[in-house]
């Protein structure tokens, strides 16, 4: 399951540089997570790094993008494949 950022985001800028897949970017009002790039850090780390650094705990699972660990690993392999 990819993650999402809720409107509780305070735009503190700490999550964006922590994302190894560059899935986090500044949206119109708050940061957003691209579900096509988010692997919950599967393949990189044991836990989602954005959640580790978020001071307001505003990064829950995205119920609109449910994925298994195997699917997240497949996405990681696709994102990191050498072209």
TrEMBL record:
Pfam families from the UniProt entry: Fer4
Start and end residues of each 4Fe-4S ferredoxin-type domain: 1-29, 31-64
Record carries keyword Protease: no
Entry coiled-coil feature ranges: none
Alphabetic keyword roster: 4Fe-4S, Electron transport, Iron, Iron-sulfur, Metal-binding, Repeat, Transport
ATP-binding in keyword set: no
GO molecular function: 4 iron, 4 sulfur cluster binding; metal ion binding
InterPro entries listed in its UniProt record: 4Fe4S_Fe-S-bd (IPR017896), 4Fe4S_Fe_S_CS (IPR017900), PSI_iron-sulfur_center (IPR050157), YfhL-like (IPR047927)
NCBIfam families, A to Z: di_4Fe-4S_YfhL
PANTHER family: PHOTOSYSTEM I IRON-SULFUR CENTER, PHOTOSYSTEM I IRON-SULFUR CENTER-RELATED
Stated name of the protein: Ferredoxin
Organism of derivation: Sulfuritalea hydrogenivorans sk43H
